Amino acid sequence: MKQISLGQTSLDVSAFCLGCMFFGTLTTQEMAYQLADRYFEAEGRFFDTANNYAFWINGATGDESETVLGRWLKSRKNRDQIILATKVGARPTQPGGGRESWEGLSARAIERAAEGSLTRLGTDYLDLYYAHIDDRQASLEETLTAFDRLITAGKVRAIGCSNMMTWRIEQARSLSHLHGWATYCCVQQRYSYLQPRAGATFETQLAASQELLDYCQEHEDISLLAYSPLLSGAYTRQDITLPPQYHSSETEARLRALATVAAETGVTPNQVVLAWLLQSTPAVIPVIAASNPTQLDENLGAVHVHLTGEHMLRLNNPDL
């Protein structure tokens, strides 16, 4: 699998990142191992989790994903071959708690969460540590100095952010540059081929805006990752309803363009979406997920899909 530089760090990551959100909850440990093995066999080395996955599932605490991934790493003895990413900020501090009980991004919360993640993952360092949310209750200075201390201590190699407005990302990065602190090298937002209608919101999730795309194109030291790139299967599965946020005047035209390009290239619409992300400007790293090996194989197959300039033009300008 192709390797991509993460921002301008020393980290080279796989073109597709494996999302492990439901490991240990909706995805059993046995199936999680199968998926992780299959991804690793395809030369995938970039794993994504969080310290709160997936607390919202009945009976879950948020420990599950990191714990199962940590067990897999221990059983396969391949930690030194993996780029391991996890997140902090959105874990409830009390069982069943909502957004009001999230741990946030204070220095104390970050330091405590890092120790918990290191323990569950069975490692002594994290390759990439994300601010999972934008915590306006904690100052950027406090958050960034806490991350910087973790890097100085050798517990974290690089930091990123998620679900954060572009102006806040720039503000944080400017502070880091000013003070010589570690800088966010990547941002992970909701992003797919279909675009949300103007004004659409996703509760706690933040979709990538055109402003963010322009920002990442102009700043080579920050990479963009896309979560939910396949809209939970809505592109191809009849039993999955397209989220209402994507009902817009442009949606039907984009779906027609997607179907046409898929037919011309002999691949699935899902594979076209993933290939489109990789070949876009700026290039986007998809965070893929699957509930079984067949789904994962379909996703991984998109690495080998080449979209011509004409295909990209048609996808980007579906009304032409």
UniProtKB/TrEMBL annotation:
Pfam hit, one: Aldo_ket_red
GO molecular function: oxidoreductase activity
GO-annotated cellular components: cytosol
InterPro entries the record matches: AKR, AKR_Detox_Biosynth, NAD(P)_OxRdtase_dom_sf, NADP_OxRdtase_dom
SUPFAM superfamilies from the UniProt entry: NAD(P)-linked oxidoreductase (SSF51430)
Organism annotation: Ktedonospora formicarum
Domain NADP-dependent oxidoreductase: 17-315
UniProt protein name: Oxidoreductase
